[in-house]
Amino acid sequence: MGVLSLMFIGAVNYEASLAFAMVFWLIGLFILSISYTFRNLSGLHIAAVAGSSIFVGEHAEINVILTRNGKRIYEAIQLNFPGSRNVVANLIENTEERSSLFVVANRRGWFSPGRLTISTIFPFGICRAWSLLDLDLRCLVYPKPVPCDLDWLTSQQQDSGHTNITRGSDDFHALRDYQRGDSLRHVAWKIAASGRGMFTKEYSANVDDKIWLKWDMFPDMNAEERLSRLCFCMLQLDAGGQDYGLELPGTRIEPAKGSEHYTRVMKALALFGLDESDETNGEQR
Amino acid sequence: MGSKDDQEAVCRHAKTGIPPRVTAGIEIYRLPRTALIWILSSLVLISLPHMLRMPIWLTGLCLFCIGISVLIFQGRISHPGSKIKTTVVFLMLVALVLQYGRDIFSTDAIVAVLIVGISLKLLEMKKRRDVMLVIYLCYFSVLAEFIYSQAIPVAIYMSFCIVIITSALMSFTQT
User: Fold this and answer.
1) How many domains does chain A have?
2) For residues B92 and B48, what is the distance between their CA atoms, to the nearest angstrom?
3) What is the ipTM of this complex?
4) Which of A89, A160, A244, B95 lies at 20 to 30 Å from A276 by C-alpha?
5) Residue A187 gets which letter from DSSP?
6) Are residues A33 and A54 in the same domain?
């Protein structure tokens, strides 16, 4: 507007009628751009999905899906969350556009990325149409894994009298002939590799392989540090295919394995000490 | 639901001690390619009628700046630093004073300043605001042309220029 008034003063000063015409034409353009910019945003359907669970410090992925009805095209629509980069979406030939936004999660527990800003300056860059959307998005943020000496911790546990059989002899005890249908993970590959045939390691009778991850395993640390180390141990054990249980003050999860168990334990770690009502809310959604 | 691969990746990171984090860089404004073409062509079109009245070195400056801005866009050279910019602006002021002498407040001199301004601003298109300013100055120089002549051919030519400048305005909002 400042530019337009300067131009108008110029036109008045030099009494050039064509200059007047141009200034008025530009004013018309300005007024038109208001409605054009508005049209570039109105009638859009927006859906958003929060991505998979992440660890503290990582970027949470949020998928935003823009859909249009009818033939009108939408260009240069900018999407961003507080703290994320701008993502530009176009709906010209496609009727649906999916874009991914990334926001850093700095705290464990339920993470909500804040309000989505959807804005556009198309077509003239003079006006900006924008809207803030409070989307119902949540994703679970796990504690950040911090390395620690897992072997030492588990050996401590074995010494403290939970089991009476050491693990080395246990493997030997439980070997039996391989049968079709046995899990490949349980095959004694070392023996198979030395050419002595296929054997399966039996785990059914022993309690030794079940490792308890305990809150008390890390003395002299605060809650977050303990959770981070527990998370690391858990990841290691899960990758190793071992059974593990979790014992936190007020929470106890029996040893098991598998992705369902993994999610359960991780959720317990992520939400430990946080508001319980928060958790139930999250489950309803 | 964390997949197996994810967990392993995190484990690996946990071992090396480097967090699996992508640091967000500084967001740099990138002028769309088409926008640069539109802006440069509108500058050439609007300065053509002015050039007939201007000293020849101004045409040279204009072409030089267009060349440099293309090189900057291609990434071959970086944006000039503040020392170079100050020196160039000072040199241009001296050149304009030498050229116009006492007539420094005449219409000719003001239009020359306008052209110099647009040309030098081309070297500094770092933000959206800078681009907008270049385009507004282009509109201004159309206005300046009407001060000299309002003949029908000029009017037709200038309406063509306005269309081009408006296209430039539109193109830089697109991606």
Assistant:
1) 3
2) 20
3) 0.77
4) A244
5) B
6) no
Count of beta carbons in the 10 Å neighbourhood of residue A61? 16
Give B 106-135 residues with CB within 8 A of chain A: 128, 132
Poorest-pLDDT segment among A45-59, B9-23, B113-127: B9-23
Q: Alpha-carbon distance A229 to A218, whole Å?
A: 8
Rounded Cα distance, B113 and A234, in Å? 70
What range does the domain containing A19 cover? 2-39
Helix (H) or strand (E) holding B78: none
Q: Which residues 15-44 on chain A approach chain B with CB closer than 8 angstroms?
A: 16-19, 22-23, 25-26, 29
* Domain assignments of chain B as residue spans, ordered by start: 31-171
Residues 6+ apart with CB under 8 A from B150: A16, A17, A18
Most confident of A216-220, B3-7, B28-32, B154-158: B154-158
Q: Residues of A numbered 88-117 whose beta carbons fall under 8 angstroms of chain B's beta carbons: which are they? A: 88, 90, 102, 104
* CA–CA gap between residue A266 and residue A262 (Å, rounded): 6
Chain A residues whose beta carbon lies within 8 Å of the beta carbon of residue B3: 52
Residue A164 Cα, gap to closest chain B Cα (Å): 31
Cα dihedral B144/B145/B150/B153 (nearest 10)? -160
**pLDDT higher than threshold 60 for residue A98:** yes
Confidence of residue A158 (pLDDT cuts 50, 70, 90): low
Query: Each residue of B46-83: pLDDT tens digit?
Result: 999 998 888 899 999 999 999 999 999 888 888 888 99
Q: What is the mean pLDDT of residues A92-107?
A: 87
Task: Show residues of chain A in contact with B39, CB under 8 Å.
Answer: none
Distance in angstroms (rounded) separating the CA atoms of residues A70 and B139? 36
Cis, bond preceding A123 (omega within 30 deg of 0): yes
Q: Do A76 and B136 touch (CB under 8 A)?
A: no
Whether A134 and A187 map to the same domain: the answer is no
Per-residue pLDDT tens over the stretch A166-210: 443 344 455 667 777 666 777 778 777 887 777 777 654 344 567
Provide the pairing of β-strand A199-201 with A211-214. unpaired
